[in-house]
Amino acid sequence: MENKEAKNTNEELNQEEILNNQSADNATGEDNAPTENEQPAEAPVEVDPLEAAQAEIAELKKQLLYKAAEFDNYRKRVIKEKADLILNGGEKVIGAILPVMDDMERALEQMQKASDVQAVIEGVSLIQKKFMGILEKQGVKCIETKDATFDVEVHEAVAQFPAPTEEMKNKVIDCTLKGYKLNEKVIRHAQVVVGI
After folding, report:
1. Tell me, what DSSP letter sits at residue 166?
2. Which of 37, 53, 92, 154 has the lowest tally of Cβ within 10 angstroms?
């Protein structure tokens, strides 16, 4: 009888431990038993590394083709813009010079009728000043040669002449053709006579 009672007591204790363990699991959120709505976790699908690499290569090839086409379009656009600049680059300058051409034509007409030479000289002088003003706005400047020391960067010696004084040695004595700079770049050297 004692065995039966001990056995019943042990069974009751075991049941209480099971209930206590289940209530503790529920409290911590650990429920090992799957419910009706839960599905067992699926095993991760293994991806073939070769297929993944081939897919990546295909994507990179596609991107490369897009970039190559984009660069080709850019290159063609730049070539077209450069060609347009070469063909029409002087348009601004020519537009600025045309009024001087009109003045020259009017001056030529007046020269045929004029009896006062001084008035003709003044008119041509005004046209020359106007033309020089337009060139200066475009960045053209005349190279100074008066009393300048000979400089091979801006001068071209066409003749040498004995210097009249010691100070005139290696200096410009005379200018036979004016030189010009465009934005500090020499576009025509001044042709000068140098004292030796």
Report:
1. G
2. 37
Rounded CA-CA distance 87/91 in Å is 9
Q: Count Cβ atoms below 10 Å from residue 145 Cβ, excluding itself.
A: 23
- How confident is the model over 37-53, as pLDDT tens digits? 555 556 567 788 999 99
> Considering all CA atoms of the chain, what is the largest pairwise distance in Å, rounded to the nearest integer?
160
Sheet of 180-182, strand order: 140-142, 180-182, 185-188
Closest CA to 123 of 137, 133, 109, 136: 109
Kindly state the tokens that stand for 161.
């002449």
Q: Which CATH architecture has domain 140-196?
A: Roll (2.30)
Q: Judge contact between 133 and 91, C-beta under 8 A.
A: no
Q: Which of 172, 173, 178, 182 is nearest to 191 (CA)?
A: 178
Contact 145, 163 (CB under 8 A): no
What are the helix (H) ranges across the chain? 2-28, 49-88, 91-113, 117-137
For the entire predicted model, the pTM comes to 0.56
